[in-house]
Design a protein that fits this description.
mainly alpha; 240 residues; 2 strands; Helix Hairpins
Length: 240
C-alpha cells in the first residue's frame, strides 16, 4: 500500500472518521462523569465509564437509593441477564458506593435521567467505534506490514495510522510515536531484549519502557527513511 493507493485513501478516510468518533466519545464520557458526580460521586469514583458493564448498570440504576432498594441478589441477576462481565464484582462496587451516601442530592430525579441518557450515548459511540475498528481490520488483514515486510507488535489501528501518516505528520518525533506504540510483546528479538533487561535487575515497567523506546526508534527511522523492515539492520557502506 502506498499513499496514493485507493486502499490507502479509503483507510485514511476511515481512520479520520474514527478519530472524530473517539473525540465525541471522550466528550460524552466527560459529560457523564460530571453529571454523575452531581448526584452520586462515590459511584463515579468507582466505575470505569469506558467499559460496557458500568454503562449497562447506569441504564437501570443511577442513585444510591435505587441500588439499595433493588438488593444485591436482584441486581446481580439483572446484570447477568444483560450479559455483563463479572456481575458480582460490579454489584459489590455499586453497593459499596451506595452505602457511602444516604442523602439525596437536589434535583436527583432529573440528574438520574440525564445520567441514563448520557450512558446510552456512550454505549452508542462505543458501538460506532467498534464498527469502524472492524472496517479498519478488514482493510488491514494478517500480519502487520511495515513497507512490504512485517513488524511485530503493531495492531491494525496503529498500523493504519502508520500507513495514512507515513509522511510522519502524525509522528513528528520518536516520542510521539512511542506514545502510540502499545504492544511490543510478541517478537522474539523484543522478548530477548526484555529478558536481558530483567536479568540486569530492571523491574518489569522499566524493561517495557526500554523496549518500547528501542522499538519506536526503529519504526520511526523506517518511516523517516522509507526503508523496509529487516531483522538485521542494513550494513552501512563507506563512501569511496
Amino acid at each position: 500500500m502506498r499513499p496514493a493507493d485507493e486502499s490507502t485513501i479509503e483507510l485514511k478516510i476511515i481512520t479520520n472518521h474514527r478519530t472524530d468518533l473517539v473525540r465525541d466519545r471522550t466528550r460524552a464520557i466527560n459529560r457523564l462523569r460530571s453529571t454523575l458526580t452531581g448526584t452520586f460521586p462515590a459511584l463515579e469514583r468507582t466505575l470505569v465509564l469506558t467499559s460496557t458493564g458500568p454503562l449497562v448498570l447506569l441504564d437501570g440504576y443511577q442513585t444510591p437509593a435505587a441500588i439499595r432498594r433493588v438488593g444485591i441478589a436482584r441486581l446481580t441477576r439483572w446484570l447477568r441477564a444483560r450479559v455483563v462481565r463479572s456481575p458480582e464484582e460490579l454489584e459489590t462496587m455499586a453497593f459499596d458506593a451506595a452505602e457511602q451516601q444516604h442523602t439525596a442530592a437536589p434535583g436527583e430525579a432529573v440528574i438520574a435521567q440525564l445520567v441514563r441518557t448520557l450512558a446510552a450515548d456512550v454505549r452508542v459511540l462505543n458501538e460506532k467505534v467498534a464498527e469502524v475498528d472492524r472496517l479498519i481490520e478488514d482493510r488491514f488483514p494478517g500480519p502487520r506490514p511495515c513497507g512490504d515486510h512485517y513488524e511485530q507488535g503493531i495492531g491494525p489501528l496503529l498500523g493504519a495510522e502508520f500507513l495514512v501518516g507515513s509522511d510522519l505528520t502524525f509522528f513528528p518525533t520518536p516520542d510521539r510515536l512511542a506514545a502510540a506504540l502499545t504492544n511490543v510483546r510478541y517478537d522474539l528479538n523484543s522478548r530477548t531484549f526484555y529478558n536481558r533487561k530483567r536479568a540486569k535487575g530492571k523491574r518489569h515497567t522499566q524493561a517495557v519502557i526500554a523496549l518500547a523506546r528501542r522499538r519506536v526508534n526503529v519504526l520511526w527511522a523506517l518511516i523517516r527513511d522509507r526503508r523496509l523492515y529487516e531483522v538485521v539492520p542494513p550494513r552501512v557502506t563507506a563512501s569511496l
